[in-house]
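Please fill in the sequence for the structure shown.

STRUCTURE ENCODING:
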């Protein structure tokens, strides 16, 4: 085959942006120091961004219009490589500089660093292959804290994709002039279903990795590697004294089953578990008519503010907007793991690299 044309695949220019994801498909973009634009807003039937809001004005506007802030998203393009970092917004946590996934990654990294420092003290000259073997020989707690971080970061990716889908559909609905009575769907639905599925799959993974961490800490070993296996072995009059387990009991996530000595799941753990079981095992999201298409509804007709919605049938029989459901459990899950990270009694600060930890410089 002859090569007739050659076109350079040049890297995109470096850059960065900061976005706030809101429910309903609304985004806010930081355009300057303490200045934000929001969109899409309908202006003469065309989706546009409008501003400029101060942070305080944006918070007030969102509250008045019923928009729930989900997360900050840092978008970075560097040397042609694009990546994003989501930082969840929770009511209880005032510091949104770091995400819960960062907390758990820091725990793992600090355990790894301490182990590596001990090894390098005795083995000053270490090759790359040997070092890889050392790094892979993680302790059980070191490994499971990293797995929790991976699952929480996967939630970020799914939430970003679902929110972006809402933004695209809201923009489309504005351009096409759709109203609340006109339901519509696009080929992007397939990816949307996959991200909803992945979201609840990863919540279950994080929950089960936490169960394994508790199992290790309380002397059950690694066999109780799922929340149901852990709870099934608990007895109300012989509960291990563990800070994380005590937190789950105190907050009503694990309770005593009436008229028995057994413990069962309750509270948020039970609620999100039921939704996960439905969407992952029983009936995937998008298999019912209510989830196959969406619609836009006017939030403030004068301002041109609309929101996109698509419904989900939940285990309790309620039909709710799927992004509202995802946003609620995203906040609950991240606050849950932020609280628990503080109870591990392990170092959560950002890992510090010292001369001892530098093997070589390339």
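FILLED IN BY: designer on duty
SEQUENCE:
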């Amino acid at each position: 085959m002859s090569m007739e044309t050659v076109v350079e695949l040049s890297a995109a220019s470096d850059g960065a942006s900061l976005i706030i994801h809101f429910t309903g498909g609304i985004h806010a973009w930081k355009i300057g120091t303490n200045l934000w634009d929001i969109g899409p807003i309908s202006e003469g039937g065309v989706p546009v961004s409008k501003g400029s809001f101060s942070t305080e004005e944006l918070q007030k506007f969102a509250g008045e219009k019923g928009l729930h802030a989900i997360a900050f998203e840092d978008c970075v393009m560097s040397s042609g490589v694009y990546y994003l970092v989501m930082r969840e917004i929770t009511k209880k946590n005032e510091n949104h500089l770091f995400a819960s996934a960062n907390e758990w990654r820091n725990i793992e990294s600090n355990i790894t660093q301490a182990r590596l420092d001990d090894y390098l003290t005795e083995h000053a000259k270490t090759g790359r292959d040997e070092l890889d073997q050392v790094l892979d020989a993680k302790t059980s707690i070191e490994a499971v804290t990293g797995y929790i971080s991976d699952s929480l970061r996967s939630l970020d990716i799914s939430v970003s994709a679902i929110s972006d889908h809402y933004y695209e559909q809201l923009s489309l609905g504005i351009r096409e002039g759709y109203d609340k009575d006109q339901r519509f769907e696009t080929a992007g639905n397939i990816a949307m279903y996959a991200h909803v599925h992945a979201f609840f799959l990863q919540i279950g993974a994080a929950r089960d990795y936490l169960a394994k961490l508790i199992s290790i800490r309380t002397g059950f070993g690694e066999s109780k590697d799922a929340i149901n296996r852990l709870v099934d072995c608990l007895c109300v009059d012989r509960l291990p004294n563990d800070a994380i387990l005590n937190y789950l009991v105190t907050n009503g996530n694990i309770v005593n089953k009436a008229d028995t000595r057994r413990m069962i799941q309750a509270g948020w753990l039970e609620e999100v578990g039921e939704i996960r079981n439905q969407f992952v095992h029983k009936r995937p999201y998008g298999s019912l008519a209510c989830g196959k298409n969406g619609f836009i509804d006017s939030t403030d007709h004068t301002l041109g503010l609309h929101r996109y919605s698509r419904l989900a049938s939940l285990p309790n029989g309620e039909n709710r907007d799927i992004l509202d459901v995802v946003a609620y459990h995203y906040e609950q899950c991240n606050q849950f793991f932020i609280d628990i990270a503080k109870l591990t009694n392990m170092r959560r600060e950002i890992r510090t690299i010292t001369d001892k930890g530098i093997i070589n410089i390339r």
